[in-house]
Amino acid sequence: MADSEPLIQPDRGQDAIAIHLVNKDGFEGWARNLSVPQRAALQGQKFEGGGYQVGIVPDGEGWFAVGGVADPDELSSWCLAKLAEALPAGTYRLADREAGPALHGWLAAQYVFDRYKKADNSVGPRILLTGDAARIDSAIAEAEAVCMVRDLVNTPAEDMGPAALEAQAEALAKAHKAELKVVRGDALEQDYPMIHAVGRAAARKHEPRLIHLTWGKESDPVLAVVGKGVCFDSGGLDVKSSTGMLLMKKDMGGAAHALALGSLIMGAGLPVRLHLLVPAVENAISGNSFRPGDVLKSRKGLTVEIGNTDAEGRLILGDALTRASEEKPDLIIDFATLTGAARVALGPDYPALMTRRDETANALIEAGKAHDDEPWRLPLPEAYVEWLASDIADTNNAHGNSFAGASVAGLFLDKFVGEGIDWAHFDTFAWRPAPKPGRPKGADAYGLRAAWHMLRARYPGT
Q1: Distance of CA 309 to the CA centre of its chain
Q2: Burial (Cβ within 10 Å: 0-12, 13-18, ≥19) of residue 303
Q3: How many of the other CB atoms lie within 10 Å of CB of 104?
Q4: What order of strands is seen across the sheet that includes strand 395-396?
Q5: What PANTHER family does UniProt report for this protein, alphabetically (predicted)?
Q6: Nearest Cα to 171, choosing from 263, 255, 256?
Q7: Which of 31, 39, 198, 259, CA to CA, is 20 to 30 A from 170?
């Protein structure tokens, strides 16, 4: 995102170009108030009030814009996104309403990932004025969190390895006066043996680590946020195909979501004792890779037979969830790009959500619906636990059939969450295969805003 703060500003009567919002049903009635040349201009642009249409209308020596939306009286997060992408640089205000939730799309639409390719800066920023000044800071923070996920996931693995995730956590800790502890390399073997096993084959510069940030008053409820940080996934000795590896820079998308959520929590001063944990590894191939058939110890004490080295994310999360549970949290939320099965079931736009408690699932789903980031709940069926049985260990890390892959992965994680703890698991894609207004092709956040708004409601403070 371009410098975010100037993109929305308090309306103090500055000169600005008006934006009118219409829908298809109301367009003809609205257009009757226009002059013949103005109607002709819109006709020439084939503007009919359809969703995401943008029109330019001459007005004396100037002009105004018109945007097509589903309902001008009930704006969504993305109503203004196409306008923010398509309009010329300048300062704008909505003609007869406040943007409300659509501020998010105005900001997110101006995101550009330019780390490796110079961006086209000829257009310049589009600034939106709002009379709802109280919304500005929170809208900017939320959009910046989404763009943090995009930046981290878009960055290739060589530049976004475990050390880079640690650096991101260190920057957050410094910004918010949090404490950061990191266990790296062979020091993991004793206390975090599954993280060590998965990451030990990587080159030294990408050695595995457990990143643990703590923040907030010790007297406040403990909230644990955990993110899967597989910075590149070759599949291990159960090696992926070349096409299967092509997007595996995004396998640390769960860590990106966790870091972004942590930044929102700390930035807003949420009244919680935050424990943010990121197990960060590269699942590489070398002479000391962990093998199919190996039995790993875990921090919890359970032994895990390796049915598939490409089911590695759940292993590192197992140790991290065990550590999070030791704080006796009021709630654990984890994010992970965990299974292809979730994408087969739900496609890219809906993160799979699994929880132990119905009320937690309902709160996350309602928050997601209200902020255009809806998760879809999948079950944790006790009947499928037997599919993880092992003849020689306490559990296997993968099941031998093709059924219910997302839920079975969730059931594996459930073994490592402390008894009775409220827990929510997001199996998120972290990638957008095709663009939509405000949401470019590439990395994206799914479930982040749902989790954030649920937490704001659950821990409102004083």
Answers
A1: 25
A2: middle
A3: 29
A4: 295-297, 303-305, 395-396
A5: LEUCINE AMINOPEPTIDASE-RELATED, PEPTIDASE B
A6: 263
A7: 198
Q: How sure is the predictor about 270, in pLDDT bands with cuts at 50, 70 and 90?
A: very high
The verdict on whether 217 is a catalytic residue reads: no
Return the sign of the alpha-carbon dihedral for residues 261, 252, 193, 340: positive
Q: Is 115 a catalytic residue?
A: no
Tokens at residue 372, please? 């255009």
Angstrom distance (rounded) from CA 239 to CA 229:
19
Nearest Cα residue to 188 out of 178, 202, 177? 202
| Residue tagged active-site, from 24, 135, 184, 240 | 240
- Tally Cβ neighbours within 10 Å of residue 70: 15
Residue 3 has pLDDT above 60, yes or no: no
Domain 6-110 matching CATH 3.40.220.10: the answer reads yes
165 three-state secondary structure: helix
Catalogue the E-assigned strands of 343-398: 352-355, 376-377, 395-396
Give the residues across from 213 on adjacent strands: 180, 276
pTM for the whole thing?
0.97
Strand segments (E) across 118-196: 126-130, 179-184
Show the tokens assigned to 190: 């004793």
**Among the options 126, 228, 249, 314, which is catalytic?**
314
Q: Report d(CA 355, CA 266) in Å as an integer.
A: 24
Over range 35-53, report the average pLDDT.
97
Residue found under tokens 């976004």: 160
**Cβ pair 359, 454 in contact under 8 A:** no
Local confidence band at 4 (pLDDT 50, 70, 90 cut-offs): very low
Length of the chain: 462
pLDDT tens for 223-260 read 999 999 999 999 999 999 999 999 999 999 999 999 99
Contact 159, 204 (CB under 8 A): no
pLDDT higher than threshold 50 for residue 75: yes
Phi, psi at 434, each rounded to 5°: -145, 145
CATH 1.10.10.10: does it fit domain 141-458? no
Spell out the domain ranges in the chain: 6-110, 141-458
Of 330, 329, 332, nearest in space to 261 by CA: 332
Give the residue from 19, 127, 16, 120 showing the smallest Cα distance to 64: 19
Residue 356 main-chain phi, psi, to 5 deg = -80, -30
DSSP secondary structure string for all residues of 185-235:
GGGHHHH-HHHHHHHTTS-GGG--EEEEEEES-TTSPEEEEEE-EEEEE--
> What is the number of other CB atoms lying within 10 angstroms of the CB of residue 237?
19
394 burial type by CB count under 10 A (0-12 exposed, 13-18 middle, 19+ buried): middle
